[in-house]
Specification:
Blueprint lengths: L9 H13 L4 E2 L23 H4 L9 E9 L16 E9 L5 H15 L7 E6 L3 H11 L6 E4 L1 H4 E3 L4 E12 L16 E14 L5 E14 H9 L11 H11 L8 H22 L8 H19 L7 H12 L5 H4 L1 H34 L5 E2 L1 H9 L5 H10 L3 E2 L1 H17 L6 H10 L7 E2 L6 E11 L2 E3 L1 E3 L3 E6 L1 E2 L13 E5 L9 E11 L2 E10 L1 E3 L3 E6 L1 H24 L6 E6 L4 E6 L6 H16 L5 E6 H6 L13 E7 L3 E4 L14 E10 L2 E8 L1 H21 L6 H32 L6 E3 L2 E7 L5 H15 L2 E10 L2 E8 L1 H5 L4 H11 L3 E4 L3 E6 L5 H16 L1
Parallel strand pairs: 1-2, 4-5, 10-11, 12-17, 31-32
Antiparallel strand pairs: 2-3, 3-9, 4-7, 6-7, 7-8, 8-9, 13-14, 13-16, 13-22, 15-21, 16-20, 18-19, 18-22, 19-20, 23-24, 24-29, 25-26, 26-27, 28-29, 30-31, 32-33, 33-35, 34-35
Helix pairs in contact: 3-4, 7-8, 7-10, 8-9, 8-10, 8-12, 9-12, 10-12, 13-15, 17-18, 21-22, 24-25
Length: 886
């Protein structure tokens, strides 16, 4: 099959690639979620990530050959997005994979055939790179494909040795580049991205890298390739950059229309902003479609940052008000054929964008006011330079690009501390990096190394609370050992286990590993298991050797804490009932956003634009308890995922599902896909009690509850508190609310009376200052401290003094309590005309005391934390008034 070199759409390129490899025995598999199973990476960054367990030998491939179009997100070079021809946060990677089947020779031959014969790229426009030590690949390209040796470049590890993360499968690679300007001659510099674009990367996956950086050969030699869809579209559609392909440009046009501008007639700055909007909108649409929610940590932090960059760049090109939802409609329309979930999740995508954009626009308005204050304050300083921290606060918290802050600063004749900004940026990047899900990489690395010699753990805990097992791996401090003596913390992998590993919000089981082999003291083996986590296909038991010696190969008995398991099961089933009740009573579109199921309590996070009312909470609690009392039996079945969805089963947030899934069904009540442990009948839960409901993030609410025995524990604590209050107030339980309300009212009256007395005292003190007012020509000024009066009294005193003096500026301060400073400024209109604004003035003074503040031009207040600097602050205030009014 050969394709005309005429225009090919992005969809046609995707379909052609997949068909090419399907005809060569590759199974077409769907794109994995942007939320990866691999805990060492935050987002799906490559097509091979879903196949990592297969490359490691931990999972058997469904087919020896596969091909995919994988959606990916990378943000490591986000600042280059829109500035270069082909940097993106979101992109699609077309890939063909071999799991121990074919290797270099076949992969190279097919890549060349696809590029030259199918996509019709002239051989004269292609250049190849290989890893500098890979003589085999070099020879295949030169001797079998026929590429001249001077068009094959040897390159180092940075360019031609690929790895998916800090640990895991890796290997040398060979890349195919397209040469846009062969007429420039034979001098080849692949770093010249104005001439060369790398569009196809062939990775020869043959090693595993551990946490120490050591490479060991994999059991099989594998192939992992990636052809950039956007890059091939640029080449075949003959446009100057990836953004002007049909994959992205319709999004850019939508944004341009909203802004009332034309992309092609715009200057470079405007084009960059439009490209950023086009790229980032694609990214956030797919992230939200894959159930990522905006937050301040991890993936949510990345999503929020991308949305805010879209809004910022919209403002830079003149868009006022909200616009992201309208632009997202273009991205959804472009993606829905290949990725139907973006249309299914359209309502959630638009709701999340609208909510985040509205919040951020408010933040931006506050940022503009802050920037104005920073500029005014900076003008009063000797160095006339906005601090790096201030510039970064504007950038990170309020969404101001550094270049915008610089531009405004230059207009005002001041500069920005760029070194300080970069230092603050490094701190932020470290925070983003630390936001990753925590995992013991040394444990992961050791397991990866052992994956080829042992099988995954068989879980038998649905039916058994204890089982015989064989010790396959012992890790101490992340390193594999043959035995561990009493007093040692260990991580243990068994061939089978009844212990549930932490997953789907349910915590891992606790319990013991025991053995009959007698130790030196005649006691048998006892290992306390405190937690269990799943790494790839292994259940890792985290524990402590209480007595005896644990050895690899030992036959032991693994027994879980039955009481703890029963309570966990009750709480887990209760979360299913809770979700069903929420949908029936509050909104049937509610979806789970996270959960925690422990033996003591349960926590359920869900998406909702509003709080659940007290009346609704009571109805939810009553409905769940009625289902418990009705004794609904559980029906547990395994079935194809398509069948489960057809039946209406609800998927759990953040879980990954195979072709066959486990369905927990309480007929007529709740049906969910779930791998957790559950009661066999709702009656086993006993009782359900909601403890609290609150917001945890924009659009996300949280309910905390208890069930079974924990309800009695909870009620006992409440009963003790009520009895104690009754004894103190000499009142019956039903009389307590009125008694407390009366006391609160009495306290409020007393506080009002005290405030009035303090205000009168402050006025009396301030009147003594009238005679000490300082004359500055037509103005009078007072700068003084009034002991420990509170802020409101201080404000009253300052206003009174200014009114009595008339054409005056009054600055008063007090220390109402240790480590707290209060400052107030009251300026007459004539003072304002001299360029002094009370709000800006007092904010700058408060900084000396480690505080901040602001207000109107005529009256403002501020606070501080460092009382030792108050005298210095007041002296500064007087000097500035003398300078401004003298």
């Amino acid at each position: 099959m050969s394709i005309s070199p005429n225009f090919l759409s992005g969809s046609q390129i995707r379909e052609t690639f997949l068909d090419f490899y399907a005809q060569r025995g590759h199974k077409i598999l769907p794109s994995a979620s942007l939320v990866p199973e691999d805990p060492t990476v935050l987002l799906t960054i490559a097509g091979m990530l879903q196949f990592k367990p297969i490359f490691l030998g931990q999972r058997t491939a469904e087919s020896p050959r596969a091909t995919t179009s994988q959606k990916c997100i990378r943000t490591n070079d986000i600042e280059n997005v829109g500035r270069t021809a082909r940097h993106h946060t979101f992109f699609e990677m077309l890939g063909n994979f071999s799991f121990g089947d074919y290797f270099k020779k076949q992969a190279i031959a097919w890549a060349w055939e696809l590029s030259t014969e199918v996509f019709g790229l002239p051989a004269s426009n292609l250049v190849v790179s290989v890893f500098r030590e890979d003589d085999e690949a070099f020879a295949i390209w030169r001797d079998e494909i026929g590429i001249p040796g001077d068009r094959i470049q040897r390159m180092g590890e940075e360019d031609n040795f690929w790895q998916s993360g800090p640990t895991g499968p890796c290997g040398p690679c060979s890349e195919i580049y397209y040469d846009f300007h062969p007429e420039r001659g034979d001098k080849i510099d692949l770093e010249d991205d104005t001439r060369f674009i790398e569009f196809y990367n062939l990775v020869f996956m043959q090693y595993n890298k551990d946490a120490e950086g050591n490479l060991t050969p994999l059991q099989n030699q594998n192939i992992d390739t990636g052809l950039g869809l956007e890059r091939m579209a640029q080449i075949l559609q003959k446009v100057p950059n990836n953004y002007e392909t049909d994959l992205i440009f319709p999004i850019i046009q939508s944004a341009a229309e909203i802004a009332g501008i034309d992309y092609h007639n715009s200057d470079e700055k405007v084009k960059v902003s439009l490209k950023v909007i086009g790229d980032h909108i694609r990214a956030v649409v797919h992230m939200i479609a894959d159930e990522i929610r905006a937050s301040n940590v991890g993936r949510g932090y990345i999503l929020r940052r991308l949305i805010r960059r879209v809004v910022r760049h919209g403002r830079l090109i003149g868009i006022q008000g909200e616009f992201t939802v309208r632009v997202a409609e273009s991205a959804i329309a472009l993606s829905e054929a290949a990725y139907p979930n973006v249309r299914r999740r359209e309502a959630q995508i638009k709701a999340e964008l609208a909510r985040e954009e509205a919040q951020f626009l408010k933040t931006l308005e506050r940022g503009e006011k802050l920037l104005e204050e920073i500029v005014d304050r900076t003008k009063q300083q000797a160095n006339q330079q906005i601090s790096g921290q201030d510039a970064f606060t504007l950038y990170d918290t309020y969404g101001f690009p550094l270049e915008l802050t610089q531009e405004i600063a230059e207009e005002q004749g001041i500069s920005v501390d760029l070194d300080g900004f970069e230092e603050a940026m490094k701190v932020q990047q470290t925070r983003a990096k630390d936001a990753r899900q925590t995992i013991d990489l040394t444990v992961q690395g050791s397991l990866d190394k052992l994956a080829e010699t042992i099988q995954g753990t068989e879980f038998v805990g649905y039916a058994e609370l204890s089982s015989l097992a064989e010790v396959e791996v012992i890790l101490v401090d992340g390193k594999s050992v043959e035995e561990a003596a009493a007093g040692t913390e260990v991580q243990v992998v068994l061939n089978q286990t009844p212990f549930y590993a932490e997953s789907g919000g349910q915590i891992g089981d606790k319990g013991y590993l025991t053995g009959s082999i007698q130790g030196e003291n005649g006691e048998g083996l006892l290992v306390r298991v405190d937690d269990v986590k799943k790494e790839s296909d292994f259940f890792v038991h985290f524990g402590f050797v209480e007595r005896g010696t644990l050895r690899v190969g030992d036959s032991i008995t693994a027994k879980i804490d039955n009481s703890g398991r029963r309570r966990i099961q009750a709480n887990h089933t209760a979360t299913h009932l809770l979700q069903s009740a929420l949908r029936k009573i509050v909104d049937d579109s509610i979806s789970q956003a996270g959960s925690l199921v422990s033996s003591e309590r349960l926590r359920f996070d869900f998406n909702s634009p509003r709080a659940v009312t007290a009346e609704e909470l009571q109805k939810i609690e009553d409905l769940v308890n009625s289902w418990i009392a009705e004794a609904h039996a559980a029906v547990v079945a395994e079935m194809p995922i398509a069948q489960a969805r057809e039946k209406g089963a609800t998927a759990m947030f953040g879980e990954k599902y195979g072709d066959v899934v486990r369905v927990i069904d309480f007929p007529g009540v709740s049906m969910e896909l779930c791998g957790g442990t559950h009661v066999s009948n709702t009656a086993e839960i006993g009782l359900f009690k909601i403890v609290s409901e609150a917001g945890v993030a924009a659009g996300t609410r949280r309910i905390e509850a208890v069930s079974g025995q924990a309800v009695l524990d909870y009620l006992n604590v409440r009963d003790k508190v009520v009895r104690d209050l009754g004894d103190r107030f000499k009142a019956k339980p039903e009389e307590l609310p009125n008694r407390i309300t009366n006391l609160q009212n009495e306290l409020k009256d007393t506080q009002k009376h005290l405030a009035a007395v303090k205000s009168e005292l402050a006025i009396a003190k301030s009147d003594q200052l009238l005679s000490a007012a300082e004359d500055l020509g037509e103005f009078k000024i007072i700068v003084a401290q009034l002991g420990d009066v509170d802020t409101e009294a201080l404000k009253t005193a300052a206003e009174r003094l200014q009114q009595k003096l008339g054409n005056a500026a009054v600055v008063l301060a007090s220390i109402p309590e240790p480590d707290k400073v209060s400052l107030v400024a009251a300026f007459s209109p004539e003072v304002n005309k001299k360029g002094l604004q009370a709000g800006k003035f007092i904010g700058g003074i408060a900084q000396i005391c480690g505080g901040k503040g602001g207000g109107r031009p005529n009256l403002a207040q501020a606070g501080g934390r460092d009382a030792s600097k108050l005298q210095e602050a007041l002296e500064s205030a007087r000097n500035l008034l003398v300078e401004g009014l003298g």
